[in-house]
Amino acid sequence: MASRVTRGWFLIRPVVNTTAHKGNINATIGAAVTALCIKRTGTIARREHATYAYEDQQQQHPTELDSGTEKRTTQGPRRYWSKAEIKAIYDSPLLQLVFRAAQAHRVTHDPSKVQLCTLMNIKTGGCSEDCSYCSQSARYETSTKASRLLSVEPVLEAARRAKENGSTRFCMGAAWRTATGRPRSFNNILTMVSEIRAMGMEVCTTLGMLTPEEAKQLKEAGLTAYNHNLDTSREYYPEVITTRSYDDRLNTIEAVRSAGISVCSGGILGLGETDNDRVGLIWEVSK
Fold first, then answer.
1. Burial of 31 by CB count in 10 Å (0-12 exposed, 13-18 middle, 19+ buried)?
2. Between the CA of residue 8 and those of 50, 94, 102, 107, 268, what are the distances in Å?
3. What is the dihedral of CA 213, 224, 253, 35, to 10 degrees?
4. Which of 104, 122, 205, 216 has its CA 20 to 30 A from that of 225?
5. Are 278 and 90 in contact (CB under 8 A)?
6. What is the Cα–Cα distance from 148 to 10, expressed in whole angstroms?
7. What are the DSSP calls for 184-226, one per residue?
8. Which residues pair with residue 127 across a beta bridge?
């Protein structure tokens, strides 16, 4: 068994949400780095981004479709960025970037409030993937002990305690490559999702790769959001993980958002990547 390569890392998980519309990733990481100007006319507040990260509700701006040939007019978050535009923002002075991010945050969030979420590991260790940053991989010598998926009731009890303590979202993570081929485990997770949703809480899971049918079942069970990180740029990805491809990650994200589930996705910094790789990650997440 190989020794784990120790690498310093920092998780950056921007609030990246999707609506039920196909391809509609509302990338706050893109919006959070653009200048916001708030104008008031009478009692009506108009919000305009200098770079159209958010398009004015009263003024439409044309954006290109994925084909690059057709044009359409939309309202809402801007989803079409060039890497050059992203790099220009990435290279901004730090405090200016923080200021602009705070402004963008206020477009869709109350700055005086936070959401309290509880994360529970429902299946630990023994993962067959070789993610070089992860102590739950079975390929490295770590102190993490592999365990089976928890049964339903202990998870529901943890969710009840989380709600009593003020959490409004309960997140569950399972350390494995995919739920495919684990029908009993997946059915138990569907039960967990539906029962916790019935408690009046939002529910989030991270279960590795999903098929479109599995994503649909999770949606029907009441799943609010699905976490699936891209980790780094497409170009640097093989240096971090070799047991799956970048397109495997994107396919799961597409299955999740096509099912109408909100996507939570981000990456990890400090894996040996360059600034251009970080820009590439932001570009992928912003699409």
1. buried
2. 35, 21, 27, 33, 10
3. 160
4. 104
5. yes
6. 28
7. HHHHHHHHHHHHHHHTT-EEEEE-SB--HHHHHHHHHHT--EE
8. 137
| Residue 263 β-bridge partners | 226
Partnered with residue 72 across adjacent β-strands are: 63
- The per-residue pLDDT for 76 is 64
Tokens of 4: 């784990």
Residue 148 phi, psi (nearest 5) = -80, 165
Amino acid letter, 263: V
Report the candidate in 111, 113, 94, 115 with the shortest Cα–Cα distance to residue 102.
111
Residues of the chain predicted below pLDDT 70: 1-76
With contact defined as beta carbons under 8 Å apart, do 174 and 123 qualify? yes
By C-alpha distance, which of 147, 137, 174 is closest to 2?
A: 137
Determine the Cα–Cα distance for residues 77 and 278; give it in Å rounded to an integer.
21
Beta bridge partners of 46: 39
Q: Which residues contact 234 (CB under 8 A, 6 or more apart)?
A: 246, 280, 284
Per-residue pLDDT, 198:
97
Enter the tokens of residue 284.
């992928």
- CA 212 – CA 139 distance, rounded (Å): 28
CA distances from 40 to 47, 113, 134, 222 (A): 9, 23, 48, 39
Q: Exposure of 35 by Cβ count < 10 A (0-12 exposed, 13-18 middle, 19+ buried)?
A: middle
